[in-house]
Structure to design on (209 residues):
């Protein structure tokens, strides 16, 4: 079937991100390094807390409170939120590819595991990019994360396309594999936009560049 829609991941596809930025920013004034904080957060179960946040089961202030509880800190919410949000840097070649695909007539979707703090920040900061997108599928809004099959099912219903007509681009192999199991055409992005464009062309997806 001909590709009609392209569903992009955000983090490490449309934009790069690095949690060390947030931890350095919060840790430096408190005499703690990012590697040390990552270890303490991991030992304290913050990954589970964060997964709950990205599924919309807890709110942003609860996330910050759990962060503080694990570390024994009392970082003000506004300081936490700013550091947590400002970890992204747009990936211009992929952002331009998305614009080119839209200009070529493809339906665009964003399919991201994310929480309210991140999504509100990047949708505002990169508004000129996301105005090109027809659908935003955000885990904290739909209550499920990739690679759960329900995430892809929700995206297909929202975009109103058949699985074989939807191309999915993600940087994590497990998300790509899960998408393929749901019938989507999926490409693993490994920080090489030239290879990505070639993979799309091989699938019959062509843009004027």
């Amino acid at each position: 079937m001909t590709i009609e829609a392209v569903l992009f991941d955000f983090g490490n596809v449309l934009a790069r991100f690095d949690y060390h930025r947030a931890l350095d920013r919060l840790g430096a004034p408190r005499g703690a390094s990012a590697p040390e904080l990552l270890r303490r957060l991991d030992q304290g179960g913050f990954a589970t807390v964060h997964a709950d946040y990205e599924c919309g089961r807890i709110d942003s202030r609860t996330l910050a409170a759990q962060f503080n509880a694990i570390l024994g800190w009392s970082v003000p919410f506004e300081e936490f939120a700013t550091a947590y949000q400002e970890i992204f840097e747009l990936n211009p070649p992929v952002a331009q590819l998305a614009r080119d695909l839209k200009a070529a007539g493809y339906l665009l979707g964003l399919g991201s595991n994310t929480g309210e703090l991140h999504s509100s920040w990047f949708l505002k900061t990169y508004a000129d990019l996301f105005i090109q997108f027809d659908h935003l599928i955000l885990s904290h809004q739909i209550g499920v994360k990739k690679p759960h099959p329900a995430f892809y099912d929700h995206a297909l219903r929202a975009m109103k396309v058949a699985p074989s007509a939807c191309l999915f681009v993600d940087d994590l192999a497990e998300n790509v594999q899960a998408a393929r199991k749901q019938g989507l055409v999926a490409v693993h992005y490994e920080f090489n936009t030239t290879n990505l464009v070639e993979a799309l062309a091989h699938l019959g997806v062509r843009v004027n560049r």
Summary: The CA atoms of residues 147 and 178 lie 6 Å apart.
